[in-house]
Amino acid sequence: GLSETMPELLAEPRWREKLDLLVTHAAETGAGERDAETVELLAPIESPGKIICVGLNYIEHVEEGGQERPENPILFSKFTNAITGPDSEIAWDPELTAEVDYEAELALVVGDRTRRVAPEEATDHLAGYTVANDVSARDLQFADDQWVRGKSLDGFCPLGPSIVTEDELDDPEACSIWTEVNGERLQDSSTSNLIFDIDTLVSFCSDAFTLEPGDVILTGTPPGVGAFREPPIYLQDSDTVEVGIEGIGTLTNHCGHD
Amino acid sequence: GLSETMPELLAEPRWREKLDLLVTHAAETGAGERDAETVELLAPIESPGKIICVGLNYIEHVEEGGQERPENPILFSKFTNAITGPDSEIAWDPELTAEVDYEAELALVVGDRTRRVAPEEATDHLAGYTVANDVSARDLQFADDQWVRGKSLDGFCPLGPSIVTEDELDDPEACSIWTEVNGERLQDSSTSNLIFDIDTLVSFCSDAFTLEPGDVILTGTPPGVGAFREPPIYLQDSDTVEVGIEGIGTLTNHCGHD
Predict the structure, then answer these.
(1) What pLDDT band is residue B23 in, cutting at 50, 70 and 90?
(2) Which positions in chain A touch B65 (Cβ < 8 Å)?
């Protein structure tokens, strides 16, 4: 048997080969097979050691916020209590925040313990990719200046629907990326528009922090967020929000007050 | 036996009673007794779910930085890779940062899973208190605006020497708190000077995030940090830095380049 949590699994030596064996075995024997209609998918990683987020990493998003193009990646964080899975409810207290926004993001999943890796070797240390919605309480985020509180309310980091391993995605920097709220497309871009590319981000982070198996890096959001629209569009009770990335999947969540 | 990690231990039902029994048993039988001279103390919590930090929470520290007294607690975060224990080395790459600063802080350790707790019930949910050094790469912190990178280099969150449980500290808001670098006292204040008190901080955090057993809340630093001195004082290779809080203990670390 393999580890129970994704960070533990990714910390196992030769996890890729073990997982391949398990998948082959399952396909041949039906062992571990589940009915997709009846299982509840959880976030593919529930308790990473850290969620590193990159701000201002698509130039048109930098511009819509009236910011300057950053010289280095701008890192911030979300606490892991924010993680939730596909099809779950994102619920918030309307007295705490009235400005809840969506942000579709490509999320990198670290595969190996990594410190000070060169850009050209960075992706060797990734396990794969998933989709994140970097849900943001804009009133809290901008009132605090430090972004972590407004970015970390419970349920404000939907992840999923699954991790696509590094070998299965042809080019993670050539994928369309979008957000739809109640079926209306509000973000529509491509990961080819990243200012700092994946290699640069992983290397930059690893210069400061030891990256651990299961750590998640959110690579920033394209233009079209609700806060910078005229008039602004914020998520409302009973909205459905979907973020998606070509080749990885779509991640749908329902909004509610609590 | 009890859990192997502190967050797991604190998540056990009735951990206080179990721990009391274990301590009583150890005192009576010598079971589990160790020679204090030969053991290496690690940080009392190595992998908390989150490290929540409070900025600008002593008025004279607010003033020395030329800031305004905050209306609400300013939260930021450190990644858990930053945690290190007593007597360890805080090592950094001098090409990454040349402005490493100390910050003595009272750290709260969450005991129970807690959401939206009222201030008057907040301390019921704490396991205890420890000492933290919120080591800060000022050049990175101020260049990024978002503080998490400069606050989270490996080893930049010494914790310890131990957790003093909530029942053992008479008044955590009436303790002297200090920093000494190579024996010279550079911070010298009292936790009675906190702008937002412990009850308020725990309640405020729990309004945004579910607090989990083992989560750590750093309550802010008093005046006297190196960055705001004339001329500034930054930690140097081979410095010894000690932070201490009356009734909890002192936490000594050695500085080095790597």
Answers:
(1) confident
(2) none
